[in-house]
From TrEMBL:
It is a lipid-anchor. It comes from Schinkia azotoformans LMG 9581. Keywords: Cell membrane, Lipoprotein, Membrane, Signal. PANTHER family: ABC TRANSPORTER GUANOSINE-BINDING PROTEIN NUPN (PTHR34296:SF2), TRANSCRIPTIONAL ACTIVATOR PROTEIN MED (PTHR34296). It holds the Pfam family Bmp. Residues 28-299 form the ABC transporter substrate-binding protein PnrA-like domain. It comes from the Bacteria. This is Transcriptional activator protein Med. PROSITE patterns: PROKAR_LIPOPROTEIN (PS51257). The keyword Lipoprotein applies.
Length: 317
């Protein structure tokens, strides 16, 4: 049995992002289940930082369990959470939906939150990033910056809204652009992703959007080596190469977890299927590369502000 880890109060990060603590926090305990480790450079680390942000901002006791992949592991973790008096459990991925659906009645004093599912109950919530828009704005940048007018998406699954958004944004920016899309059917299959990259690169694709967690970084490294452009995914990835990463489509998991925990502690959280977008300040574009012309930056930023105000995308040029 993996040891339950209580994050030490002395190990506090992200203090500068903290708001005012909520009240009645002494009984609040929050747990996090991770499919991989806290050191997984994109998704896992963002979940862990979200937990740290909850601890530092809301003064709640927080716990986490890594590599929770099977029903037995999840059940054992929830039993340990129950012993510690955990009230709210985040399942850091869509894979926890079926587990929570099966097990939630066994833990009536716990509330469960997970990503990208359709099952809800009196103590179960599914949260979703409304990621069509972030893909749209990333597609605008990619289409404008492509020299060959041939760009590509390497995505994990065909249900990802950011893929359709990317295609629509690219077509808005330049109706003549060609967009190739390849699905790996896995968040972590680096071999498939790199094979797709190699095949696309041979056909003239010169801007890539690797929309997957674990394979995102090796694809961007290949893009950098070959002198092409990329759009970052989930994190602001400009630090991977200012002349390579044009911008990033950022999902602020940390801020979303803090938002939910704040509502929960205040007694204002309601279960159901909940979506979050640019207007909730949990999705944004990352910093722009110096390669991106100022006029394109202005155009894209105006489109983002229009969307935040009205929910509308810019019309066809």
């Amino acid at each position: 049995m993996k040891k339950l880890l209580l994050i030490l109060a002395t190990f506090i990060l992200l203090v500068t992002a903290c708001g005012q603590p909520a009240t009645n926090l002494s009984t609040t305990k929050i747990g996090l289940l991770l499919p991989d480790t806290i050191n997984e450079p994109i998704w896992g680390n963002k979940g862990y930082k979200g937990l740290l942000l909850i601890q530092s901002a809301l003064k709640a006791d927080v716990y986490y369990k890594e590599s929770m992949k099977t029903r037995m592991e999840v059940k054992e973790a929830l039993d340990e959470f129950e012993e510690e008096g955990v009230n709210l459990v985040f399942g850091h991925g869509g894979e926890y939906g079926p587990f929570f659906e099966e097990l939630h009645n066994d833990y009536p004093d716990m509330d469960f939150v997970y990503f990208n599912g359709n099952f809800t109950a009196e103590n179960v919530t599914s949260i979703k990033f409304e990621s069509h828009a972030m893909g749209f704005f990333g597609g605008m940048v990619a289409a404008e910056m492509s020299k060959t007018k041939h760009i590509g998406v390497i995505s994990a699954f065909n249900w990802q809204p950011e893929v359709e958004g990317f295609v629509k944004g690219a077509e808005y920016q330049d109706p003549n652009v060609v967009v190739d899309v390849h699905y790996t059917k896995s968040w972590s299959n680096k071999e498939k992703a790199l094979k797709a990259y190699s095949e696309m690169e041979k056909t003239g694709v010169d801007v890539f959007y690797p929309a997957g967690d674990s394979f995102n970084l090796p694809v961007i490294e290949a893009v950098k080596e070959d002198g092409h452009y990329a759009i970052g995914y989930v994190s602001d990835q400009l630090d991977l190469g200012e002349s390579t990463v044009l911008t990033s489509t950022v999902q602020h998991v940390e801020g979303l977890y803090k938002l939910i925990a704040t509502q929960y502690i205040a007694g204002k959280f309601q279960h159901g299927i909940k979506t979050f977008d640019f207007g909730d300040d949990v999705i944004s574009l990352g910093d722009f590369s110096p390669e991106v012309p100022d006029e394109l930056k202005v155009e894209v930023n105006k489109a983002v502000e229009l969307y935040k105000l009205t929910g509308e995308f810019p019309g066809r040029k």
